[in-house]
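Supplementary Text 2. Reproducibility record for the structural model of the 264-residue chain.

All settings were left at their defaults, and a single model was retained for analysis rather than an ensemble. We include the record here because the model underlies the residue-level annotations in Supplementary Table 4.
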Amino acid sequence: MDKAANLLGIAVYKVNVHNANRSIDTTSLEHQLHHAVSQGKKYFIVIANMMTTMYGSVDDSDLYTDALQKNNLPFKLHIDGAYGGFYYPFAAEKNTLDFSNEHVSSVTLDAHKMAQAPYGTGIFLARKGLIAYANTKAGYVEGEDYTLIGSRSGANAIAVWMILMTNGPFGWYEKIFILQKRTQWMCDKLSEQNIVFYRHKGANIITIESKYITADTALKFGLVPDNHAQPKWYKIVLMDHVTLEKLMLLLADINDQKITPSLA
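Retained model, structure tokens:
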């Protein structure tokens, strides 16, 4: 989003979240809205997350739309489902991050993450009547072009189609159901060891406070930090190959390290 804003010459205003539960800080939201208006901004594009890549956290889009409507500010709401697009709708069927929400204008999702398609299989969906604004034409190229980078591989689109057709809707529901159960099992075990972690109930990502993870453990199990220089969190992504046996090895390793959390 920063790159897109830079290319288009659009100002970016970022809203803080509460560290404990990753929810939107409404005070920060109001402050940023008033700050933007004071700088002469009249129209807004809101990006709400459907599972952030680091935490798996999900934004309450109503907080954005309520605040914008209260201040009579015109807006378009975009849902960033780059990670969660192929997961969250199956884990939380009742949500407002799709076109059933009248405020949602567009949605993105990446098939190269949870769907495990080749890299570069991004998908962009827009409400009827809006996609034309993303279209450009080159006279020497037959057909339509809706992407900023231009030509893209058709093989990637075929790969996504094959993956979805092979699994089908019921196969995908079963896949997500199993990962949800596996993620909950890991959360229960971490709680038993009094390890502080964050997990959104509709996500397969668990982030653990770094004070419980040694550098050796992180390296050994390939845990991803929120910041490579000074990590505060490490995340686990529960996928098909992350079996309970492997999770038990991680739990044992954390316990063997016997880190004593600082009270600071």
